[in-house]
Amino acid sequence: MASYKIKQGSTPTITVELGFDPATLASFSMDFVQEGAIVLTKQSSACTIVDNSVKVNLAQSDTLGFSPARVGINFRGLTSENKVVQIDEIPCVIERSVYREVIA
User: Fold this and answer.
1) Distance between CA 62 and CA 34 in Å, rounded?
2) Number of Cβ atoms within 10 Å of the Cβ of 73
3) Residue 88 has what DSSP assignment?
4) Are residues 25 and 94 in contact, defined by beta-carbon separation less than 8 angstroms?
5) I need a labelling partner for 92 at 20 to 30 A (CA). Which of 12, 37, 45, 62 fits?
6) For 1-104, where are the E strands, in sequence order?
7) What is the CA radius of gyration of the chain?
8) Where along the chain do its domains lie?
9) Is domain 4-95 classified as CATH 3.30.499.10?
């Protein structure tokens, strides 16, 4: 399983390997959880499917919203047959940045 290290204010691409054909999904989301609370959700419309994986690009504002601590990335989907699928939480460490503003 992958793990990630993200610096606040960066723009990483997160890739989630599903282990099944994503074409079976009717909808899905990725939740980013810190200290038991969802701090960011990315719906399927914000993601790209590539082979058997899902990719999502995070914006500067997304990563600036994380505290410098552990984040769990959770994937949950609903198949076209109304079955819920989940994968194991992906661990991620958020590193502090001295920059706290979005640059343009």
Assistant:
1) 13
2) 21
3) P
4) no
5) 45
6) 4-7, 13-17, 25-34, 37-43, 47-50, 53-57, 70-79, 84-86, 90-95
7) 14
8) 4-95
9) no
Q: What is the pLDDT of residues 61-90, one digit of tens each?
A: 999 999 999 999 999 999 999 999 999 999
Which tokens is 80 given?
Answer: 């076209």
Q: Please report which helix (H) or strand (E) contains residue 62, including its range.
A: helix 60-64
Q: What is the pTM of this model?
A: 0.91
For residue 16 the two structure tokens come to 């989630």
Instruction: Evaluate if residue 92 carries a pLDDT over 90.
Output: yes
Cα separation values, 70 from 11, 35, 37, 54, Å = 17, 8, 12, 21
With CA atoms as reference, report the closest residue to 52 among 24, 28, 26. Answer: 24
